[in-house]
Specification:
Layout: E1 5-7, H1 11-21, H2 27-45, E2 51-57, E3 62-68, E4 73-79, H3 83-92, E5 97-98, E6 100-105, E7 112-118, E8 127-131, E9 134-135, H4 139-150, E10 156-163, H5 165-174, E11 179-185, E12 188-189, E13 195-196, H6 202-207
Parallel strand pairs: 1-11, 4-5, 4-6, 4-8, 8-10, 9-10, 10-11
Antiparallel strand pairs: 2-3, 6-7, 12-13
Helix pairs in contact: 1-2, 2-3
Length: 210
């Protein structure tokens, strides 16, 4: 069974993504929008977190009310563009731990190579949300999910702003147990591996390095 693809069907996400796509959107606005959309997608990606109850006293009466069951959560950005999504996730789940995976592409093999990895000690016990703005060829996300499985993680989700059909197909083939949460699914990849119509290089636009 392939992991589900959850595409955000929400006017706010659609509106903010359109501003994000605009080549004239400033670095400041782009960065803020990435964080805001990340927060909105996190809302959906955490929909199945388990609940328990606790007793609470309101100004009116004592009652039993729902509360998170305490299942531990970690957000893992793929460096460097994934960093732009972390703040939005943490605003929704402030107690989450943050792991980091740094990848670069070997120019000969075109395969992702890990150059940095730092994880919480108990990462294998946590629900993992891997974040990266773009799911293009799927190479980085495929590798990142594989690394998290090597750590013993069994509950992994992938969150992106934009996905190409090619990237989705690769993740569903390599990691059928991983659900994908995305703001929108675009048409295709071009010959340079960029998503069309896409929004350009997310890392450069978040950090103003172009």
């Amino acid at each position: 069974m392939s992991g589900k693809v959850h595409v955000m069907d929400h006017p706010l996400v659609a509106h903010k993504l359109t501003i994000l796509r605009d080549k004239d959107t400033s670095v400041k606005d782009f960065r803020e929008l990435v964080s805001e959309i990340g927060m909105l997608i996190t809302y959906e990606a955490t929909r199945d977190l388990p609940l328990t109850t606790r007793e609470v006293e309101t100004p009116i009466a004592k009652t039993t009310a729902p509360t998170l069951k305490g299942k531990k959560f970690a957000v893992v950005p793929i460096l460097r563009a994934g960093l732009g999504l972390v703040d939005g996730v943490l605003r929704m789940v402030p107690s989450a731990r943050v792991g980091h995976i740094g990848l670069y592409r070997d120019e000969e093999t075109l395969e992702p190579v890990k150059y940095f990895c730092k994880m919480p000690k108990d990462v294998a016990e946590r629900e993992i949300l891997i974040v990266d703005p773009m799911l293009a060829t799927g190479g980085s996300a495929d590798a990142a999910i594989g690394f998290m499985k090597e750590y013993g993680c069994t509950s992994i989700k992938l969150m992106v702003l934009l996905a190409a059909p090619e990237g989705i197909a690769r993740i569903q083939k390599s990691h059928p147990d991983v659900d994908i949460y995305c703001g929108a699914v675009d048409q295709r990849l071009n010959e340079h591996g960029y998503i069309v119509p896409g929004l350009g290089d997310a890392g450069d636009r978040i950090f103003g390095t172009k």
